[in-house]
Amino acid sequence: MSPTGKSPNREREQPSPLPPGENSAGDRWQEHASDRLGEAGYRKGGSRSRVVELLGGQRCAITALEMDDQLDGVGRATVYRTLEQLEELGLVQKIDVGGDSAGYETVDPGGHHHHHIVCNGCGKVVPF
């Protein structure tokens, strides 16, 4: 708990999406993820595609609840189910972001990755 009595995850800054035109890696990941989901027998549903699109547009880890907040019309269960499917296929990795939550981050098909620092006080996640 923080001094304000709120859990650190509630105070965490919302992850920032990439500015338009700077998402070629995210676009490649989205295409790769869609292909892998199709190969695994998953339909290309609108809600699943929206989760994949949101993940592909992130700079860093995002929690399932943050995704749920940003995806109007997509049920929370769909967000969690899609994350589970993506994790099983090795397309996302679960990141400890402190508190009771986990963040999810895309796995670059080319192998590029980065590490994170998590503030114990506010829950802010900073890639390095």
Account of the 3D structure:
The protein has 128 residues and is α+β, with helices and mostly antiparallel strands. 40% of the residues lie in helices and 14% in strands. It has five helices and five strands, in the order αααβααββββ. It has helices at 8-11, 24-39, 46-56, 64-70, 76-88, and strands at residues 62-63, 92-96, 102-106, 116-118, 125-127. The strands form two sheets. Strands 1-3-2 form a three-stranded antiparallel β-sheet. It has a two-stranded antiparallel ribbon with strand order 4-5. Strand 4 (116-118) and strand 5 (125-127) form a beta hairpin. It is globular. It starts with 7 loop residues before the first helix and ends with a strand. Mean pLDDT is 79; it is low at 1-16.
Key phrases:
128 residues; alpha+beta; 3-stranded antiparallel sheet; disordered N terminus
